[in-house]
Design brief:
alpha/beta, Rossmann fold, Helicase, Ruva Protein, domain 3, Arc Repressor Mutant, subunit A, five-stranded parallel β-sheet, 11 strands, about 10% strand
């Protein structure tokens, strides 16, 4: 998926914020779970900026071995190390005038964090084996699926770098909080998959649609796209049936969700307790509220809150 598609009001608000700050020089830190489209948002920002005619460079800090990451970022001079038989420009130089995405910034080693800080503060880099700094003009966008504040407290991420990156924070909500987008994106993925595979256009049956809406999508948009592509290829008619929607570990995940788990947030534990109490009382809200020690109005408000986040 190369474009950010959404009909979700919360996501539209984030896109508007991103567009408003796109032309600034400020660093942007994008939070979000894996598969939510953080890189797509970064590319959207680049496309709306005054740098859109320049390069968009990206590197996944978690995918490049620590020993190679420094040379990829900053480049090196000939003879800087064994095998360096010629000069190599780093990605910061390649991105000069444009935008540089540092994907999964939380995985960057502390030593390189200090060098990145210099790029942000001084606007210059120094190649490995080099003696002179090189001026670069790049817009830095970083993404992470971890809370950097926690890593700062654990001394695993530099506090000064965190504040430099977190000038404009944007958080991409998980797909389970964008219920309207599940069906919307499913239709788009079905159309794309049918077209790419030379198949007649297919549609979801009501039961298949309900099954998609009931899943929490831990892999987010990436997972949804994979499920839809698989279902399109497996379906035997122009209507995709419920049993043709194959979601791995759906039943085991549901069983796990129905019990308290270490690491659950207070909000998740509260939701589980309320739903299990309602199940125990046969959905009698008055009795459930009495057992929970809350008012019926509070219970109703909680249920409305859960419905806004996902289909119960």
């Amino acid at each position: 998926m190369e474009i950010l598609y959404t009909i979700d009001p919360q996501m539209k608000k984030i896109l508007k914020m991103a567009e408003n700050v796109a032309s600034s020089r400020a660093s942007i830190l994008i939070y979000g779970e894996s598969g939510t489209g953080k890189e797509l948002l970064a590319r959207f920002i680049h496309s709306k900026s005054t740098r859109s005619d320049k390069r968009f460079c990206a590197i996944n800090c978690a995918a490049v071995p620590e020993g190679l990451l420094e040379s990829e970022l900053f480049g090196y001079e000939r003879g800087a190390f064994t095998g360096a038989d010629k000069r190599k420009r780093g990605l910061f130089e390649e991105a000069h005038g444009g935008t540089f995405l540092l994907d999964e910034i939380s995985e960057m080693p502390l030593l390189l964090q200090a060098k990145l800080l210099r790029v942000l503060q001084e606007g210059e880099v120094q190649r490995l084996g080099g003696s002179e700094p090189i001026k670069v003009n790049v817009r830095i966008i970083a993404t992470t699926n971890k809370k950097l504040e926690s890593l700062v407290r654990q001394k695993q991420f530099r506090e000064d770098l965190y504040y430099r990156l977190n000038v404009i924070p944007l958080e991409v909500p998980p797909l389970r909080q964008r219920i309207r987008d599940i069906e919307f994106l499913s239709k788009i993925f079905i159309e794309c998959s049918c077209r790419e595979n030379g198949l007649p256009l297919k549609k979801l049956s009501p039961a298949a649609r309900k099954k998609l809406l009931s899943w929490r999508w831990p892999g987010n948009i990436r997972e949804l796209q994979n499920v839809i592509e698989r279902s399109v290829l497996l379906s035997r008619s122009d209507t995709i049936l419920e049993e043709e929607i194959l979601i791995q570990d759906q039943e085991s995940h549901r069983k796990k969700e129905r019990s308290l788990q270490p690491g659950m947030t207070v909000h998740e534990a509260e939701r589980l307790l309320i739903l299990k109490t309602l199940e125990f009382t046969g959905q009698n809200r008055t009795q459930a509220a009495h057992l929970l020690g809350i008012s019926v109005r509070t219970l109703r408000n909680k249920l409305n809150e859960y419905k806004a986040q996902e289909v119960l």
